[in-house]
Structure formats: structure tokens, C-alpha cells
């Protein structure tokens, strides 16, 4: 991942990270999950983060999609926030 992209993603996550209460994460997830099937797909990410390039959306997917099935469940989403230090290395 390039430094610039890393920066872009860090800013994105920081902006989403003002308040990490569980309910907030859950409602954010539900906001992203437009069709309400309990999974966030790459298309839903692109839809939600319109300011991100396609490549960056794929990076977001890779960060959140912990089991690699190209969709993000609520569990994956919440656990990624808990393990933020995994991907956000100084
Ligand atoms: Ca969905
Ligand atoms: Ca997954």
C-alpha cells in the first residue's frame, strides 16, 4: 500500500473513529449495508465512500474482510475497529 493511500485510509478511519461505541458502529454498518442483507460488498463500499478511488475501496475491503470472502459481516467490521493497531502501523 502506498504512503499516500495509507494516509487517505487513516484519515477515513480516524474520521469514522470519533466515537467507538458499539451502537454507533452497528448503525454505521447498517448505513453502509444498503440492501440490508447483513453483509457489506465492494459495491456498497464504493457507494458509501464516494470520495475514495476504486483501488482504495478495494483496500478498505481487504482491511475489513478478515476471512477473505469479499464481503464484510458486522462481526468483521466491529472486530477490525477493535484491532485497529493491526493495520494502522505508525
Ligand atoms: Ca449488503
Ligand atoms: Ca468476510
TrEMBL record:
SMART domains xref list: EFh
User: Would I find Transport among this entry's keywords?
Assistant: no
The protein's matches in Pfam families, at most eight in alphabetical order, are given as: EF-hand_7
One GO MF term attached to the UniProt entry: calcium ion binding
Q: Does the keyword Cell membrane apply?
A: no
Alphabetical UniProt keywords? Calcium
Domain EF-hand: residue ranges: 20-55, 57-87
Coiled-coil region:
none
By what name is this protein known?
EF-hand domain-containing protein
